[in-house]
């Protein structure tokens, strides 16, 4: 597993580095060929975005690894991970190094090339156990760090009919604590079209798109409440200072803790847009939405967490969990009605930074935890 992590982390697979993602997909295809079934690379669904000029453009993503094993078996599970990282091809963080005898610093070591190695080792162990009543699908996508918009349909299709799912994000804390409930997440690009005019001669004839975007940002900020975080993050657009700007794009992220808060947030978005459109006489178009639904702790999820906790106890590992503000593909899987534990990967920390690290001994710990959990699910445990 360690050799795999070091080799995989040497490949830059930032979400927008299509060449690096293709190289990573090839390496993973070779590695997962050790399992039965046939691994294929699946093209992403079409994805578009709004650029800084307010135009809708196509966004390219890498292909996704998809493996099916014994689809006719009575017990069906889903295993997911992602090959992309947040570190682009031009980022300064490109190499691994040892921090001490048991800790490695490197891009993607914890998030989540270490997790992919754990998943593969556990599944190899399962294949030696003779658990022929177990079938499963594996998806390793190329765009998790940018919202999984190109792989979400593939994940939803694979989740259908599954008893449970395990996702291999790193633990929520370096001590191995799992992530429990997660909020949802919505990313929006809101384009405001005003009317240009001379800033000195006839500014009253203009409709300032930039101030309308600022007005909207303040209304969004005022939506914050317990269980709903709102982050107006950026305004693109504007004009020379002697021209009333006729276009601006406001980008905002919202994270509702529950489906009800998501509905409330959507209603408040619609209300704010209607208000600013009317008061400032501008046209507003919204792009995006809540791509990651909230992931509450349902009774089915609690039962799966309990199973993982007991497996950990039997292996001498103390397993706990806590709510977190982050989101991942576990949100999408849970929205399909499938219980999921989405932090079955390595122990580590400081992910999404140049200080990201992997605790090496956790590779074997978490592989054993996964293998025992999977065997118990195959044996009828819930």
From TrEMBL:
Source superkingdom: Bacteria
Q: In the record, what terms sit under GO molecular function?
A: hydrolase activity
Which residues are in the Peptidase M20 dimerisation domain?
181-270
Query: Which cofactors are reported in the record for this sequence?
Result: Zn(2+)
InterPro entries on file: ArgE/DapE_CS (IPR001261), Bact_exopeptidase_dim_dom (IPR036264), Pept_M20_glutamate_carboxypep (IPR017150), Peptidase_M20 (IPR002933), Peptidase_M20_dimer (IPR011650), Peptidase_M20A (IPR050072)
Q: Name one Pfam family in it.
A: Peptidase_M20
Coiled-coil stretches noted in the UniProt entry, renumbered to this chain? none
- NCBIfam families according to UniProt: PRK07338.1
Q: Would you tell me the protein name for this molecule?
A: Hydrolase
Q: Which organism is it from?
A: Sphingomonas sediminicola
